[in-house]
Amino acid sequence: MDRSKQTAKARKWFETLRDRICAEFEAIEREAGSDAGFAYKKWDRETEDGSEGGGGVQGLMKGKVFEKVGVNVSTVSGAFSPQFASQVNGASEEHPDFTATGISLVAHMANPHVPAVHMNTRFLTTQTAWFGGGADLNPPLPYEEDTEAFHARLRAACHAHNPTYYDRFSKWADEYFYIPHRGVHRGVGGIFYDHLECGDDVEFDRHFAFTRDVGEAFLDIYPQLVRKRMNEIWNEDEKRQQLEWRGRYAEFNLVYDRGTLFGLKTGGNIDAILMSLPPEATWS
Amino acid sequence: MDRSKQTAKARKWFETLRDRICAEFEAIEREAGSDAGFAYKKWDRETEDGSEGGGGVQGLMKGKVFEKVGVNVSTVSGAFSPQFASQVNGASEEHPDFTATGISLVAHMANPHVPAVHMNTRFLTTQTAWFGGGADLNPPLPYEEDTEAFHARLRAACHAHNPTYYDRFSKWADEYFYIPHRGVHRGVGGIFYDHLECGDDVEFDRHFAFTRDVGEAFLDIYPQLVRKRMNEIWNEDEKRQQLEWRGRYAEFNLVYDRGTLFGLKTGGNIDAILMSLPPEATWS
């Protein structure tokens, strides 16, 4: 069991998945008659002592269908601060070292009939190692059949690995993507999972296979939903609803999302972290 | 020294100030050829045990000059939760009772040359009592002379009461209205003060007089700045800058502002709390 080999394998997958997703999203832009493409920006993680800390690549496309879509891959390593180390699975003040590799994606769509979406999967190592991730659908104007199709595809990916996964992970998503001060969910759910621990190579292989299948499921179903809705006519009132709804999305990410807050308060890459915010939002 | 009389006096002032400010803002709308006016909505504070908890009035105007301006006055009372009581000046688990009365105002302006603004003053009682408040200017496109005029007026209000106030309170505003993850201030500053303790009637009278003068200074200077800039021509690029800048404003309020977070996480009136958010914002 070689942790650095595991991280390298996971990283390779996240980068491959990014390439395939970006190619697919650009193909959708072509179908809509646009020549929009992703622009990529490399960034290096700044460490306090100037040591090598890894970095990432932020991909951003502003297109005709995808009003703003960001896809980040990053592979970083270092030592958590003493206060933080004690809060992280498998880390401690004596053992603050970590590596993290992952992909994260948020798409805000021009047409209010097309759902926005979020997907993120990651592999972390401390004194232990685990996979985590999830995907959730965020339609400003929900269609029951789209919601059902999205969940059905994730359910299939989960069931292929463990009969308990979908129930557990979709409940986790319902709990996580919730805006308490509004008493509403951020979207129509999906799955959220964490701490799929890789105690040995067998467990690594198993959880890695599941995480790949979550990526495959996303890449299969989301473009279908986009293509189904991207040519629907929308009116001003529907656009207005979308912009208000995006205000809720921004509230969730800025007030509650652990990843966002962790990034903001620990000097992460601001552009990459806040890529999730909507291109435009309103509060009436 | 009768705390309830003090609260009643402060409340009366905050309501009078609200009436004068709203009348002045509506007069500005008239001058711009608009007949926009404030709409008022009463709300009652919900207490867990159903006891009387006070409430407030939320005033909202969407005009031609004032794209969205909210002015809230509220007078609430009750008992802090045990966890929270220990964090509040003069409160404790044994003595969780409090009253709070105050005015808060946020104006987001249609023309990017006109500064947005925030003003809030309040009087709290626990086992002790104090005034707090402040005002800060938030120009999307700053003019040095406007910034100077705003500060000069607040400086004069401060100096009339205590030669150390302006230095202390403007520094406090600089520290408070700061967005660490961006490394920038929210606006061009103003004053921020808290815990002007009222141990006896003499202190109450003194700090109440100062708090009234902060309100008077605001009501004197801000309308001057609005009238000076409201007829300036603006182009698309300036509007775009304003919307991006409003994204920063939303970030500050949702990630850092103690009042906003306290309200959101303790079941306050959502509409009144989030009134501070901009009518429209962008994240490019």
TrEMBL record, chains A, B:
Q: Pfam families per the record?
A: Coprogen_oxidas (PF01218)
Report the top EC class in one word. Answer: oxidoreductase
Record pathway? Porphyrin-containing compound metabolism; protoporphyrin-IX biosynthesis; protoporphyrinogen-IX from coproporphyrinogen-III (O2 route): step 1/1
Q: Which UniProt keywords apply?
A: Heme biosynthesis, Oxidoreductase, Porphyrin biosynthesis
Q: EC number(s) of the enzyme?
A: 1.3.3.3
GO BP term (any one):
protoporphyrinogen IX biosynthetic process
Q: Does the keyword Isomerase apply?
A: no
Q: In the record, what terms sit under GO molecular function?
A: coproporphyrinogen oxidase activity
Naming one, the record's GO cellular component terms include:
cytoplasm
Q: Which family does it belong to?
A: Belongs to the aerobic coproporphyrinogen-III oxidase family.
List the PANTHER family: COPROPORPHYRINOGEN III OXIDASE, MITOCHONDRIAL (PTHR10755), OXYGEN-DEPENDENT COPROPORPHYRINOGEN-III OXIDASE, MITOCHONDRIAL (PTHR10755:SF0)
Q: Which NCBIfam families match?
A: PRK05330.1 (NF003727)
Question: What's the subunit arrangement here?
Answer: Homodimer.
The protein's name in its UniProt record = coproporphyrinogen oxidase
- Native source species: Aurantiacibacter aquimixticola
